[in-house]
Write a structure and sequence with these properties.
74% of the residues lie in helices and 0% in strands. The chain has 395 residues and is mostly helical.
Length: 395
């Protein structure tokens, strides 16, 4: 095991120097400590080490000086020396924050996994709301080949810092490795089970190999014919491959097995609206909206259907509600496109032009995203199935 992300470690050490220094008040007259701290924060690690060595020599009982010297030595690749000073800091002040964090990273660099994890766990006890020790605990477990042990601390780190890209990257990697390990184990236990066919179908789907995905879901259904979820996934694959009648049949079977299932009704209604069976689609959508009023995609298709039925004001209300609910990225441009048509029908030309402008902007923005990423960040009933481009319809 090794800590491979040098840039991440460097940025972390720079960021944590100040936090460690704040755990104990700095003596204003201690020029060496002040200069060492400033050098550490500025990335001048050799200078920092020299100044901090002076500070430790003059005030060996100062735990902050010991921690910051350990941090500087860690950045210079002197893990053994860093461990020595970090342990001294902990011996002086057992509850000092930051010391166990650096100590865990130092042990990790020396391939001492048990010691690294123990130190990082201690830091999470001292600073339970700091995402960094949770993240590093996950990194250590992940790079030691134990992704199943990495998921819990990385999940905790993500709860504390939901927008931290480093945390999200490592968390995704850990969960992905655990998932693939589970799939591999399933194939060993029973390679012909419906579970294995379903997983293989899902993996083909993620790779946009819809023909292969359909075949796997069909095999899964042969083995488990009363599982409504399998029909939902099969219907989605038929839809993605433009086999709308087969998709409708799969969703109808799902609804038969799971009466009043809002997802099945929504998926059937989408196809009804898009194949000019407007009355049937609207009937289903109104049932969905009656029980699930927080899904923007439902209101989008409701607006689409109402407009096709000639109910312009109802269409406007549904589409404006969909927009106000901040729909997923794939759906946003389509909402604007349909709003532009409704506004034009109502003679609101300026509003229509604004909607067209926003539609164009959102389309360009989505084009910069990887299709799988775009799909992954979308949510709602079947949102990944919403076409990326808005089909032309006659008013």
């Amino acid at each position: 095991m090794r800590i491979g992300n040098v840039c991440l470690l460097s940025a972390f050490l720079l960021a944590c120097g100040a936090a460690c220094a704040q755990s104990t008040p700095r003596t204003s007259t201690d020029d060496a400590l002040q200069r060492g701290t400033e050098s550490l924060h500025a990335g001048r690690f050799a200078d920092a080490e020299q100044w901090l060595q002076q500070a430790v020599a003059s005030t060996p009982g100062n735990p902050v000086a010991q921690v910051e010297l350990g941090a500087a030595e860690l950045r210079l690749g002197k893990a053994n020396e860093a461990v020595e000073h970090l342990r001294k800091a902990i011996a002086i002040e057992p509850n000092i924050t930051g010391a166990n964090l650096f100590l865990g990273i130092a042990h990790a660099q020396m391939h001492q996994v048990d010691e690294a994890v123990a130190a990082l766990r201690r830091e999470t006890e001292l600073s339970p709301k700091d995402p960094q020790p949770w993240m590093w605990q996950g990194i250590v477990e992940l790079q030691d080949g134990h992704p199943e042990k990495a998921t819990e601390p990385l999940d905790r780190a993500a709860e504390l810092a939901p927008n931290d890209l480093d945390i999200l990257e490592y968390r995704g990697k850990a969960h992905t490795e655990v998932a693939f390990a589970s799939y591999a184990r399933m194939a060993v236990i029973d390679p012909s089970s419906w579970h294995v066919h379903r997983v293989q179908g899902q993996m083909y789907s993620q790779q946009s190999q819809h023909k292969e995905a359909i075949a796997e879901f069909v095999e899964a259904i042969k083995l488990m014919p009363n599982n409504s979820d399998l029909y939902e996934e099969l219907g989605a694959e038929y839809r993605k491959s433009s086999q709308l009648e087969l998709a409708q049949q799969a969703y109808a079977k799902e609804l038969e097995l799971s009466p009043n299932n809002p997802i099945a009704m929504y998926n059937m209604a989408k196809i009804d609206i898009e194949t000019n069976r407007t009355a049937e689609g609207l009937e289903l959508l109104h049932k969905v909206v009656a029980n699930y009023s927080n899904v923007p995609a439902t209101f989008f298709y409701l607006g689409l259907g109402e407009f096709d039925a000639g109910h312009t004001q109802e269409a406007l209300a549904a589409l404006e509600k969909a927009k106000a609910m901040n729909p997923e990225p794939e759906l946003r441009p389509r909402v604007e496109y349909e709003l532009s048509r409704v506004y034009r029908k109502l003679g609101r030309i300026e509003d229509s032009n604004k909607a067209v402008h926003e539609y164009t902007r959102l389309k360009a923005q989505n084009a910069k995203l990887n299709p799988q990423v775009l799909s992954a960040i979308s949510s709602g009933f079947g949102s990944a199935d919403v076409p990326a481009s808005a089909p032309e319809k006659k008013d």
